[in-house]
Amino acid sequence: MGKFLVAVGLLIAFAGVLIMLGAPIGRLPGDIYYRRGTTTIYVPITTSILISVVLTLVLSFLRR
């Protein structure tokens, strides 16, 4: 459980550094953004896939 918490903390810190440096996290190509009038719909498909791949790699590394 301790390794998992450390990994999650490091992942959050890494994402924070990327956002501070101006990385377009949450606005990647492939994310669907629809705006018409006062209605805005945002579906982060690419961002979700990227987060899923990173978490899969981190968790598979921690299981070993």
Set down the secondary structure blueprint:
Layout: H1 2-20, E1 32-36, E2 39-43, H2 45-63
Antiparallel strand pairs: 1-2
- The SS-based structural class is alpha+beta
Tell me, rounded to a whole number, the average pLDDT. Answer: 84
Rounded to an integer, what's the Rg over CA atoms? 15 Å
Strand order of the largest sheet: 1-2
Q: Provide the helix percentage.
A: 55-70%
Q: Output the number of helix runs.
A: 2
Number of domains: 1
Point out poorly predicted stretches: none
Please outline the major beta sheet. 2 strands, antiparallel
- Count of strand segments: 2
Shape: elongated
If you had to describe this structure to a student in words, what would you say it looks like?
- The protein has 64 residues and is α+β, with helices and mostly antiparallel strands.
- The protein has one domain (2-63).
- Helices cover 59% and strands 16% of the residues.
- The protein has helices spanning 2-20, 45-63, and strands at 32-36, 39-43.
- Strands 1-2 form a two-stranded antiparallel sheet.
- Strand 1 (32-36) and strand 2 (39-43) form a beta hairpin.
- The longest helix has 19 residues, at 2-20.
- It is elongated, with a radius of gyration of 15 Å.
- It starts with a helix and ends with a helix.
- The mean pLDDT is 84.
